[in-house]
Design a protein that fits this description.
mainly alpha, Fic-like fold, Fido, Fido_containing, Fic family protein
Length: 249
Amino acid sequence: MEGFFKRIEEKKKLLDSHRPLPEYTVKSIRESLLLEWTYNSNAIEGNTLTLMETKVVLEGITVGGKTLREHLEIVNHKEAILYVEEIVQNKESLSEWQIKNIHRLVLKGISDKYAGTYRDQDVIISGATHTPPNFLSVPEEMKKLITWYKTDAQKLHPIERAAYLHGIFVGIHPFIDGNGRTARLLLNLELMKNGYPPIVIRNENRIDYYNSLDKANSTDDYTDFIKLVAVEVERSLDLYLNLIKRTDS
């Protein structure tokens, strides 16, 4: 894994050496990633809107034959991304309040009763070996997560830290609904804070994603999940570097 991280760090340094990036380059990649991230994160959770339909909804147009919930999932996710970008820009430190705000945006208009509120009942993760903790222990587990983040987590490589943050959060499953989307927003929040571009966990890779997450939560072996995240970090860096190369030539 160290060799893998070394290659990623070299690509990140190369990208950083081109900063500030051309305005159009930043705008076009940001729009592309925002669309891909929104489409894939919702598709993983069962949203049936296609990539092009997602683009249309983000432009403010309604797609016939699709539910109000599916439309809201797209619009809400974009709002949540904008909020995450704001957190990064303001250099805010991670807090439970922040996590609840992200979740509130994800479920706005879909389930206002539970938006930004920890669950009041027990849940199981469909198809997973791991069982989330009793709902009564969720507030305590979330406090532990923030304490871990501020202490031991800071010794980890940023990519590892982002993967663990996502994994531990999903293991706690603090909300009734919207945990997956919120977890992926937190993952990218941590990456972006450390100067990496956001990544897209693609819907086509959801089986590997679910399996590596379940392995992490049930055995505490995060190797596969960290590797999956690192592969996507490199993919996002390559997207920027390839576009810069084309701009320079």
